[in-house]
Amino acid sequence: MRAMVWFRRDLRIADNAALFHACQSADDGVVGVFAICPEQWSQHDDAPAKVQFWIQNVACLSQSLGKINIPLLIVPTPRFDELPSEITSLAAKHECDALYFNREYEVNESERDDAVAKAADKLGITTHRFHDRVIVPPDSIETQEGKFYTVFTPYRRVWDERVAGETELLASPKKQSKTDIPSDSVPTQIDGFDFSDCDSDLWPPGEDEAKRRLKAFEDHMGQYDEQRDIPSVAGTSRLSPYLAAGVISPRQCLATALNVCGGNLEKNDGAKTWVSELTWRDFYTAVLVGFPRVSKHRPFKLKTDAIRWRDDESDFNAWCAGQTGYPIVDAGMRQLNQTGWMHNRLRMVVAMFLTKHLLIDWRWGERHFMNLLIDGDLAANNGGWQWSASTGTDSVPYFRIFNPFSQSKRFDPDGDYIKEFCPELKDVPASALHDQKKLRKALKDIDIDYPDFVVDYSKGRQRALDEFKRI
Ligand SMILES: Cc1cc2nc3c(=O)[nH]c(=O)nc-3n(C[C@H](O)[C@H](O)[C@H](O)COP(=O)(O)OP(=O)(O)OC[C@H]3O[C@@H](n4cnc5c(N)ncnc54)[C@H](O)[C@@H]3O)c2cc1C
């Protein structure tokens, strides 16, 4: 039996369910395939930094697969529509009897997979699909009424029970029977995506790098609960691009956390809190599966459709450019612009600022993030945006609006993070960075070219409260 493994956002050989099972079953070789779909990726707002990261990781994967006699073929096709015929004709050409892949849960992706499975079936090729992107499959956690959970805490309770004792990782595959099929070369440029602004040194590709980061984080995971909200400190794992591209599996992360706490999360607050974030990742994927409207630009709370968002492009552009006059907001947006990544605390701060103080539609922000993030992931991004905008499941109550000055005072007291990304503020005393009046005075005294407040935050806050109360 010869198997084809279709890689997508699971660009690794370790602990990869589809690859593992294909290698277990095949006795006449395994062939890998990866599809490059630039038009579809553009339509999904995938960022150039992310696309570059994908193809760099595909090149690393091709090398690793080569060592175990698995060639990696590249299918260049603009859109998903052509994949049923492209993938299955390639499988038939190379005499593959079965097609293996790990599930993707977004609407377009799962429709694509159904179409490919149907086309494969017509050619007598069996399809095997696996849950691999998450720790617990989205449809396997249900309420007593058989519904999807919409609140995190009870979901987490069931999730905890489900993962207890289930951290055995799948072995990396051994050498397979040789085929005479050569690997295709992996392109370094993709039509429609400009990589010239991407600083790929920040995020080196490859499974070894992902494992190195996990190992480095393991050593200070115990302090995660204390450090994770301080953006000037490397207190989080910075694994999100690797998890989003599947260069490391969430199970590998969970196994490491359980190792840190000797199998009992109650004994280590850092590991416990970190696993909670991995649970949020599964939870938002489950929300996407249970409530597909959220991936079709609809709010989870349907009545929030009635909010009269301000279509103010000028305010939106100031926010995008990191020119709002609020130092913590500007630092966050500039970190995104410069590095393709933003610290979680800042993602919440800037998202809430856009949707509450500026009362601009969360969908504008969601899209802007996807256009730039190296770790852009529909479920997590949508979940984060709808949480911040109070339109989502288990989201922040609309009246709990972060004050940007209190946030910076609490999480960046010395202004280290602000000054890294807003260097023009380097001579402003830290206390002035966290106070509207003092900031204006300091800017005048030192004569610094820094924008005026795009909105008075008290007025912006009241405007948002009034609008949410109205509905
Ligand atoms: C508005 C907004 C947009 C976001 N967009 C994305 C996105 O597109 N892609 C993305 O991966 N995360 C997103 N997040 C979640 C979170 O900000 C990032 O996962 C985190 O900052 C990544 O840094 P890290 O790898 O150091 O995380 P760590 O703190 O080390 O957490 C470990 C992993 O858990 C997962 N995770 C952590 N927090 C969350 C969360 N709140 N929701 C879901 N998964 C989480 C990530 O995979 C992360 O790598 C968003 C959050 C907000 C508020």
Automatic annotation (TrEMBL):
Q: Where is the Photolyase/cryptochrome alpha/beta domain?
A: 1-135
Site (Electron transfer via tryptophanyl radical) found at 309, 362, 385
Q: Where does FAD bind?
A: 224, 236-240, 274, 277-284, 375-377
Some GO term, biological process aspect, for this entry: which one?
Answer: photoreactive repair
UniProt-listed Enzyme Commission number(s): 4.1.99.3
Catalyzed reactions:
cyclobutadipyrimidine (in DNA) = 2 pyrimidine residues (in DNA)
Single Gene Ontology MF annotation = deoxyribodipyrimidine photo-lyase activity
Which cofactors does it use?
A: FAD; (6R)-5,10-methylene-5,6,7,8-tetrahydrofolate
Keywords of this entry: Chromophore, FAD, Flavoprotein, Lyase
Q: Which family does it belong to?
A: Belongs to the DNA photolyase family.
What is this protein called in UniProt?
A: Deoxyribodipyrimidine photo-lyase
Q: Which organism is it from?
A: Stieleria varia
* Name of the encoding gene: phrB
